[in-house]
Amino acid sequence: MRDRTHDEAMAELFQENPAYAVELLNSILEDGEHGELLIALRQMTKAFGGVQSVAEKANLNATQLYRTLSEEGNPALSSLAAILKAMGLRLAVERVLAA
Question: What is the dihedral of CA 15, 35, 94, 17, to 10 degrees?
């Protein structure tokens, strides 16, 4: 029996439970962890058909998508919005109340 990688397991979870993917992304955005966001998006890319498929839907080339979601990646807002749209998601803004 072949063991799955963590990324493969997460991709499967995102496929089975898209609402969890939304919750996870919102949690990461709330915490402001840029690196964690890129990891989650890389894992989600696998769940949505892989880099080539997501790149095509986002009108990006696959190399650009790999670089954008790499550990050193710093996606432009337009790229991030396109990637999320290719996954059936979008960015949203909400008011934060001061503590």
Answer: 10
Q: Tell me the per-residue pLDDT of 40-92, one tens digit each, with 9 for 90 and over.
A: 999 999 999 999 999 999 999 999 999 999 989 999 999 999 999 999 999 88
Closest by CA to 38, choosing from 59, 20, 24, is: 24
pTM of the model: 0.84
DSSP letters for 23-78: HHHHHHHHHT-HHHHHHHHHHHHHHTT-HHHHHHHTT--HHHHHHHTSTT----HH
> Domains of the chain: which residue ranges?
6-86
